[in-house]
Amino acid sequence: MNRREIAxxxxxxxxxxxxxxxxxxxxxxxxxHGLNSLLSVxxxxxxxxxxxxxxxxxxxxFENFETLQSxxxxxxxxxxxxx
Length: 83
Description:
Structural class: mainly alpha
Shape: globular
């Protein structure tokens, strides 16, 4: 799996929770698009399930879930990334 594939999957999971996720840029602040604390928890659970990973308590912070890119970076660090 590569970074682009991870980003596409993360974008799809965001799209399940927010309208028009295709319009969200990689560095857009997700809370500006309607991601609130409740939806963040749901997104976290969906990503953990999708990638069969578990986030550590210290990884569950605003900075790691602020943008599509920051989530992709976090996931890429937890799974084997090729390219």
